[in-house]
Amino acid sequence: MTRQRMMGALLIAIGLLALMFALGLFDPWLARLEASPRVRQLPIIWIVCAALLVLAGLSRLRTGVRRESPEADLVELAARVRERPLPFTVCVRCGAFADASATAGCPSCGARVDHHRVDDETDRATVLAAIGA
Fold first, then answer.
1. CA pair distance 126, 118, nearest whole angstrom
2. Low-confidence ranges of the chain (pLDDT < 70)
3. What is the per-residue pLDDT for 7?
4. For residues 54 and 31, what is the distance between their CA atoms, to the nearest angstrom?
5. What are phi and psi of 3, to 5 degrees?
6. Are 53 and 15 a contacting pair, CB within 8 Å?
7. Which residues, at least 6 apart from 60, have a Cβ–Cβ distance to it below 8 Å?
8. pTM given for the model
9. 69 touches 95 (CB < 8 A)
10. Cβ(70)–Cβ(100) under 8 Å?
């Protein structure tokens, strides 16, 4: 399990606990307090916070999933890397190509580790080795 996915699971768990707190499952004293406007708004705030935590957790789970390419796509990607004029950047995770100026990460999937800048034939050979071609 990647770090992104663990963080997503943790955020979802905290969000669900906050939702249970807002519904009064963990906090019976909240129901016994006076019905002042401040106390009535407290569960609404907890529900909003819980929803935000769960959404952030789902986002982390989604971005932490490794996108595997089928074998046929890897052969096609290797052919495109061999044919592409220098310089360029390529993401071996999703197969996206970009100009050489885009070095911060893949513009398509956001990967930083699998996104390579190819300036010369040595870099091209490194990328082809990373693809497995």
1. 9
2. 1-2, 24-42, 63-72, 102-103, 133
3. 82
4. 25
5. -65, -40
6. yes
7. 4, 5, 7, 8, 11
8. 0.46
9. yes
10. no
